[in-house]
Amino acid sequence: MATFPELVFSGVQPTGNLHLGNYLGAITKFVDLQETHDCIYCVVDLHAITVAQNPAELTSNIREVTAAFIAAGIDPKKHIIFNQSQVAEHAELAWVFNCIARIGWLNRMTQFKEKAGKDRENASVGLYAYPTLMAADILVYRATHVPVGEDQKQHLELARDIAQKFNNDFAETIRNVVGADAYFPQPEPLIQGPATRVMSLRDGTKKMSKSDPSDYSRINLTDDADTIAQKVRKAKTDPEPLPSELPGLAKRPEADNLVGIFAALNKQSKEDVLTQFGSANFSTFKSALVDLAVSKLGPIGAEMKRLQADKSYIDGVLSDGSARAKVLAAGTMQDVKDMLGFIR
Ligand code: TYM
């Protein structure tokens, strides 16, 4: 089998309300991976328009996600930060993948079913084809590792299936063009640690999400210290004190979620948190969680606001990153065109 140089790719949608789930499930991982890998981080604006967006808000949300990446500690000089729509090869490869992926594969995607809801006939074609664009995002760089939250696992499996089918369908021309037995790698999802699925603060059985109508369900990255404190204090809990060991969290989704959040923010395991707080009541634990959350998130929120005010800096980061990404993506598209038999 062909081997591929390790490369990290991931994306975040600019759809407003960046929250603790995005931060712990994805962005902190992006930051850590910079030490060991070349990384490409994308603001996926083409994905955002699969549901209706207000153009002025979209512009500001693209800058917000960019600011969050930088404020969290991603270095846009050493790595690449860019927005998807500036590199047309994403959409171009997505079209090719629309012709590789099978309708049956897309019909299995649970996120489409959730997002389209009951009115499926009225969902955009883009929302349905969303995972083929996501596969193109990753594979146009032939990226090997993709840090994401748990909710993206099925989309990553689809990306692997598309890569495999392309490699099989075009085995002969792949051999002619690049002299290898596979052109695309099987991208590996990186879904690890205590906060791969951060839950709503109002209901421990529902995912923390940008679209929850209650702002008390989530901690936004731009929330100030008082708001963070209020949201944590109001978070739903149960009447029992915290257990001392992990099995004690079973069937206690809210307690499990808060312990997971604490662990991830403090870069500990849930076991370590329970060793420290076992048999503590929630008011003690929540006070410690407020202090921790404010100390970790406060500086990021403040830096995000500062950066967002400097639009020309943010836009410059995106255009520089896009130019660098485009060189890589264009090379892949040339190969793909040769493999498909197009004239260029
Ligand atoms: P998006 O924008 O919904 O979320 C961005 C990242 O945050 C993670 N996440 C969570 N992690 C833990 N707990 C939660 N409650 C939570 N909510 C969100 C997501 O798993 C994701 O990692 N389709 C992707 C964006 C995308 C992408 C890509 C990702 C487009 N192309 C290519 C990786 C590679 C999405 O909608 O993420």
CATH homologous superfamily name of the largest domain?
Answer: HUPs
Which architecture of the largest domain does the CATH hierarchy give at level 2?
Answer: 3-Layer(aba) Sandwich
The main β sheet shows up as: 3 strands, parallel
Query: Span from first to last CA?
Result: 29 Å
Instruction: Briefly note the structural class of the backbone.
Output: mainly alpha
Average pLDDT works out at 97
- At CATH level 3, the topology of the largest domain is Rossmann fold
**Proportion of strand residues:** 5-15%
Helix and strand pattern: EHEHHEHHHHEHHEHHHHH
Low-pLDDT segments = none
- Radius of gyration using CA atoms only: 21 Å
Instruction: Quickly count the helices.
Output: 14
Task: Say how many strands there are.
Answer: 5
Kindly provide the name of the CATH class of the largest domain. Alpha Beta
